[in-house]
Amino acid sequence: MSTTQVTRALFDEVMVPNYNPQQMVPVRGEGSRVWDQDDNEYIDLTSGIAVTSLGHCHPALVKVLKEQADKVWHLSNVYTNEPALALAQDLTRETFADKVFFCNSGAEANEAAFKLARKYASDHFSEEKNEIISFVQSFHGRTLFTVTVGGQPKYCQGFKPVPGGIHHAPFNDLDALKELVSDNTCAIVMEPVQGEGGIIPANPEFVRGVRELCDQFNALLIFDEVQTGMGRTGSLYAYMDTDVTPDILTSAKGLGGGFPVGAMLTTDKVAPSFNVGTHGTTYGGNPLACAVAGEVLRQINRPEVLEGVVQKNALFNSELEAINAKHHIFKEVRGKGLLIGAELVDEWQGKAGQFLAAAREQGLMILMAGPNVLRFAPSLIIPDEDIREGMAKLEQAIAQLLSTAEAG
Where does pyridoxal 5'-phosphate bind (predicted)? Predict the structure, then answer.
């Protein structure tokens, strides 16, 4: 191992510069608390972008990981394994799905979903039925296919030519969607709550309208639940809070509780189009990942945890409203469950990054959802006292920023 001192400065020397991480380096976590190299303590309201859904080093997950580590780590999909089969069985039992495909990330799950939608249309209709519709400001991953389906053109800059046959409608605008959908549409893909696009929930009537259009034009409805899934909104998956069932659902982030894993869920009607050899992955269905994910599912899919998410949402909202009453910094607070966005007022638009840095100085870890929105996505079991203390630190950070701006 290198003897070079490992600091934030080393990042700039050895890492490709596509990230610009915060100046501290976390080294240890427990629950909703994190400590850096200098043993400074932080309250974590990020959970690794909605990933460590049970907090850091949850004892049940550590136990399962250690047990599986003494058995088998990797086999490839030339063979199956017990943790993958058990997890697939649990997911199909608890959701609409009949079949599961495992991979390693949300982007991979979406890549599989989009490929499956086109393959299904080709199998049952024609190769001309290949168009995918998604929504402006959506985000579906960073592969060339998924970044093109995503509705944020900035992520395609410099990577053209990109895949064709993809269209974007304004989110929550059913009339605009009707103008785009046709007999050549093979799928409509949507997030129940747009995450990277600013924490924007889909209207119930819009969700119903999308389902009806898919049925009318023989298109598949894909729900990207990479961020909303696994209890994040107060249900196991956000579609369960609607009267709509998708044909394909993608899951990742919180599914592994911090261990990389992704899953695409679908029905017996659609799944056969992924016949032997049509799609694959070396690491997907990894025994370590599936063992951990199985325990994550067992821990989260309990009434006390899911009901707790709803209760903690109310606490967050009341605390953010109190901050706003004092500082008038938020235009709107929105979201669902423990996926919450606070949009900054006009004069602070584009400056969300300053709030992340100011919060860090107060011992608080928060996120952005684009340059105008502060995002909070903590552990689903974060103690109420950590929420209150975290909000107190946020208020201090906001006060400091506003004071500095006035002085300047």
Answer: 106-107, 139, 224-227, 282
Identified catalytic residue from 129, 253, 336, 393: 253
| 71-300 placed in CATH 3.40.640.10 | yes
Give the tokens for residue 255. Answer: 């599914």
d(CA 50, CA 41): 20
Record the tokens describing residue 69, joined without a space. 């580590």
Least Cα distance to 258 among 35, 83, 58 occurs for 58
Q: What is the pLDDT of residues 246-265, one digit of tens each?
A: 999 999 999 999 999 999 99
Catalytic, out of 224, 312, 336, 393: 224
Q: Any known ligand binding at 282?
A: yes
- Whether residue 363 contacts residue 43, with contact meaning beta carbons closer than 8 Å, is answered with yes
Pull the structure tokens for residue 355.
């709030």
Report the CATH architecture of 8-57+303-407. Alpha-Beta Complex (3.90)
**In the chain, where the domains are located:** 8-57+303-407, 71-300
> What are the φ and ψ backbone dihedral angles of 263, each rounded to 5 degrees?
-150, 140
> Tens of pLDDT along 23-51?
899 999 999 999 999 999 999 999 999 99
pTM of the model: 0.96
Sorted by sequence, the CB contacts under 8 Å of residue 256 that are 6+ apart come out as: 51, 289, 292, 293, 296
* 139 in a known ligand binding site: yes
Contact indicator for 366, 376 with CB cutoff of 8 Å: yes
C-alpha distances out from residue 334 to 183, 304, 310, Å: 35, 23, 13
| Residue 44 designated active-site | no
Q: Is 209 annotated as a binding residue?
A: no
